[in-house]
């Protein structure tokens, strides 16, 4: 191997290491946003970035609600059971009609915040799933909610 090839490989390896360290630092220092929770009876809208879905939002971020049953407490119990079966999850907050869970990615340990708000009057459970860091999530949040919906509709 020539000196030039070794130099190029060394530079590429160094750049890759820097990128990976940057991802690791981003995941270590990400904090739950202040916008989590219920505000004026609703979940917060998504930011302009495509790494979020919400059942209240514009077409770009929109996702369907889940259908409720007659008892909000039982609905949240069922959601907790579904979420706890999924890998790398943590229930953070559970209130009368609200649930917040954290989902952590396998490799870089990025955290996504997933929220549910039961609206008994309309028979819906509003959902919001958002990445804490980055711009694009490659559809992870949307697929997660659709997977939860599938599990929700199975039982």
Describe the structure.
The protein is of the alpha+beta class and 155 residues long. It is 36% helix and 25% strand. It contains three helices and eight strands. It has helices at 3-29, 72-85, 140-154, and strands spanning 38-39, 42-43, 52-54, 66-67, 89-94, 98-104, 111-119, 124-131. Strands 3, 4, 5, 6, 7 and 8 form a six-stranded antiparallel β-sheet that branches. A two-stranded antiparallel ribbon has the order 1-2. β5 (89-94) and β6 form a beta hairpin. It is elongated and about 70 Å long. The N and C termini lie far apart (60 Å).
Salient structural properties:
155 residues; 6-stranded antiparallel beta sheet; 8 strands; elongated
Count of DSSP-assigned helices: 3
Distance between the termini: 60 Å
SSE pattern: HEEEEHEEEEH
**Stretches with pLDDT under 50, minimum 5 residues:** none
Brief account:
The chain has 155 residues and is α+β, with helices and mostly antiparallel strands.
Helix-strand layout with pairing:
Layout: H1 3-29, E1 38-39, E2 42-43, E3 52-54, E4 66-67, H2 72-85, E5 89-94, E6 98-104, E7 111-119, E8 124-131, H3 140-154
Antiparallel strand pairs: 1-2, 3-8, 4-8, 5-6, 6-7, 7-8
């Amino acid at each position: 191997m020539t000196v030039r090839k070794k130099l190029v490989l060394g530079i590429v390896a160094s750049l890759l290491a820097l990128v990976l360290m940057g991802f690791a630092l981003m995941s270590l220092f990400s904090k739950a946003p202040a916008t989590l929770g219920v505000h004026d009876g609703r979940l917060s809208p998504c930011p302009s970035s495509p790494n979020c879905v919400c059942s209240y939002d514009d077409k770009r971020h929109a996702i369907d609600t889940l259908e409720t049953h007659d008892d909000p407490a039982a609905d949240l119990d069922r959601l907790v059971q579904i979420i706890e079966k999924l890998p790398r999850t943590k229930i953070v907050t559970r209130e009368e009609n609200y649930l917040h869970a954290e989902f952590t990615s396998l490799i870089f340990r990025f955290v996504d915040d997933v929220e549910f708000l039961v609206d008994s009057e309309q028979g819906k459970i509003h959902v919001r799933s958002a990445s804490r860091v980055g711009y694009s999530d490659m559809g992870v949040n949307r697929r997660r909610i659709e997977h939860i919906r599938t599990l929700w509709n199975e039982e």
